[in-house]
User: Which sequence fits this backbone?
């Protein structure tokens, strides 16, 4: 809807103009009425109207002065002048100021309506053009931002192309790099391990990004931030004179984040630093060091800056104890023995803790490998009934919020235990299904002669296995359950009907009256007739 304001020093004229047109039908709304030029300018400032309809002569400002001032406040405002007399020179000046039309009083409804239609059409075209131009501008800006972040993503994943030429990198990825130093740091936000709970780290992206930019950007030639899963990777380029200052500012950055972490709901913060390199070609080394440094928080604690570590040899003992543990774990999983699986994992944690030289990244990778092996074992034994990749993704996200060896091993144990419990419950339900179907069949057919062989055949098992399964699931044998159903029905008929004992005997599936009476007395300690006298 286009906003319209009406300006005339005569209130009656304002009301006439207001009631002359069905404004909503024109796609317009009258946002305000002013009786002088001063109030009119205030309306323009507050309402930012698309159209102003004004008289020539008013207190405060003349019509032309008002239009001139209104154009300063809102350059694209459309104007219609309404006057009681025709003045060609005045009309010429009005057109010069961008007045759309000059109407004479008394106002002709059709002429006024046609002028409004023309203005609405012009505004729609202009707004569409502005919207299109703004959309194109935003798309270009978005593409530029995407390309800048893409460089960091490629570096992180080891997919960067030849980046030795600064000019080519600047052109392709929209940077303004200059010769000097290039460095990467990673900021890791940790929420602590909470099984099954999702953190809200995504909402912090904007707030933390603003803190990073506020503290570091003014000392950098160029700086970009890439955010994913509670990790901020920062790529920055600077000259030699700012090197020491930036190191101090990174400490200030940590201090500010620690101050703010209660507001953010974060438990721990770590900054991992890669080393500074003079050639952009070497930036992947700095990136790898920053990421490895963050994983070291598992060993050296959090709320600190951890300097990047170089290449280091992996422990030769870790693959051995992991392999041994995986074999024991596979056996426990195949047997669905939660107690055995828990024992294996506790022993594994103790053995891992004995290796003081093991690096944080090696711990993380080892636990991920163990979980992957669990998923493979479940698949191999046809036990996995959900998406294995989804399970692995959830586990690794939860593991990523752990900051100690204890919490990481607990995360591994919990995730494996939850899967096993669901498999056990599922298998239990699968085993119970044929028993439920059998019980339903018995309840529907107790009135005739039915046998264990007949019911076990319907359940799809041989009589021996079905008999064992039935006893395990119900706590009674097949014959005990059938007897219970028949006697309960017999008691109901004795209490609620006048049927003879012989008729009831037939209705509950017995062909021999004496046999029925004998069984009834054995179980109820009274004969059918005595039961009827007692309870009918």
Assistant:
């Amino acid at each position: 809807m286009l906003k319209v304001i009406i300006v005339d020093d005569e209130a009656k004229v304002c009301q006439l103009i207001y009631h002359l047109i069905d404004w909503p039908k024109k796609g317009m709304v009258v946002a305000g009425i002013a009786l002088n030029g001063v109030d009119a300018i205030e309306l323009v400032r507050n309402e930012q109207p698309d159209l102003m309809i004004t008289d020539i002569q008013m207190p405060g400002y003349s019509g032309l002065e008002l239009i001139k001032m209104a154009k300063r406040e809102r350059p694209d405002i459309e104007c219609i002048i309404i006057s009681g007399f025709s003045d060609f020179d005045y009309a010429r000046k009005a057109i010069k100021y961008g007045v759309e039309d000059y109407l004479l009083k008394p106002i002709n409804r059709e002429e006024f309506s046609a002028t409004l239609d023309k203005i609405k059409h012009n505004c729609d075209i202009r707004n569409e053009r502005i919207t299109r131009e703004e959309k194109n501008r935003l798309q270009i800006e978005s593409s530029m931002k995407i390309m800048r972040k893409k460089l960091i993503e490629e570096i992180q994943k080891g997919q960067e192309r030849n980046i030795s030429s600064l000019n080519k990198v600047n052109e392709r990825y929209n940077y303004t790099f200059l010769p000097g130093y290039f460095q990467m740091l990673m900021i890791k936000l940790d929420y602590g391990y909470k099984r099954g709970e999702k953190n809200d780290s995504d909402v912090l992206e904007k707030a933390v990004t603003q803190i990073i930019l506020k503290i570091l950007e003014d000392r950098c030639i160029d700086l970009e931030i890439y955010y994913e899963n509670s990790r901020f990777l920062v790529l920055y380029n600077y000259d030699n004179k700012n090197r020491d200052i930036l190191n101090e500012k990174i400490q200030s950055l940590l201090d500010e984040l620690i101050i703010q972490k209660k507001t953010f709901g974060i438990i721990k913060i770590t900054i991992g630093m890669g080393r500074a390199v003079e050639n952009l070609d070497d930036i992947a080394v700095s990136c790898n060091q920053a990421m490895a440094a963050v994983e070291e928080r598992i060993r050296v604690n959090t709320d600190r800056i951890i300097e990047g570590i170089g290449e280091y040899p992996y422990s030769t003992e870790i693959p051995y104890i992991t392999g041994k543990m995986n074999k024991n774990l596979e056996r426990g999983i195949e047997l669905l023995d939660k107690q055995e699986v828990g024992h294996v994992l506790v022993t594994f944690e103790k053995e891992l803790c004995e290796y003081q030289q093991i690096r944080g990244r090696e711990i993380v990778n080892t636990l991920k490998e163990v979980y992957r092996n669990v998923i493979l074992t479940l698949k191999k034994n046809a036990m996995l009934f959900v998406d294995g990749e989804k399970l692995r993704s959830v586990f690794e996200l939860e593991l990523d919020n752990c900051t100690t060896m204890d919490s990481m091993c607990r995360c591994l144990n919990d995730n494996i235990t939850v899967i096993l419990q669901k498999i056990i419950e599922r298998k239990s339900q699968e085993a119970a299904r044929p028993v439920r179907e059998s019980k339903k069949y018995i309840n529907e057919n107790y009135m005739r002669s039915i046998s264990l062989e007949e019911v076990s055949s319907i359940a799809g098992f041989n009589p021996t296995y079905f008999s064992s399964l039935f006893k395990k699931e119900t706590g009674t044998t097949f014959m005990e359950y059938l007897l219970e159903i028949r006697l309960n029905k017999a008691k109901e008929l004795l209490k609620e009907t006048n049927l003879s004992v012989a008729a009831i005997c037939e209705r509950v599936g017995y062909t021999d009256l004496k046999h029925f009476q004998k069984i009834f007395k054995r179980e109820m300690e009274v004969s059918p007739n005595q039961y009827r006298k007692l309870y009918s």
